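WARN retry 2 of 3 for item q-0093 after timeout on previous attempt; input resubmitted unchanged.
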Amino acid sequence: MHLLLVEDDQRLARALTRLLEEDRHVVEHAPDGRTGHALAGAIDGLDAVILDIGLPDMSGLDVARAIRSEGIDISILMLTARDTVNDRVVGLDAGADDYVVKPFAYAEIAARLRALARRAEPGPRRSEPRLTAGAITLDEAARRVTVNGSNVDLSPREFSLLEALLRHAGQALTRDQLLDHAWPFSVAVTPNAVDAYVHYLRTKLGPAGAQVETVRGVGYRLSDG
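OK item q-0093 returned
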């Protein structure tokens, strides 16, 4: 995704930019609200704005309102230290699509960006939410997995793991990336959990389980069979 990070805390901005770029996002940074507002309307191809509420010159709420009033079609993820229901309601009413409370784990930011990206996908893709690689097909809407047309009964965690592999078919994913995709950010698990669930997944997929390949020194990859 092409992201605009509007954050006046330089240390946090540097750390978040580094993590986002490691996840292959393109990141622009604005150190204050006025700059963020200007860049949101000037940069072509932006997918989302990560917007701090507590900015020194122009609050994040005002930036969000300005973006919406100008009809700029972009997702907004707000960052704030305020955690009351009223604060969240005010942020969403100002035009935010989602809300993260500081301090946060990077995995939560990553998960919420993925959710925003899914919401922004064109309608035809959402109307046929099927992911296929080789013999394996996953139907997101029906929460159904088939191998050569036969149903495979997966647990919610196995389903999420397979979905992550299918969305990045042919790409090697690290254990940490798979944790980020398939486990809620609030669940304390180790990368060893990925190995265990890959084993369960391969077993349930039968011969098609061979499509889940081990990439030594990296993690796992789903092949086309």
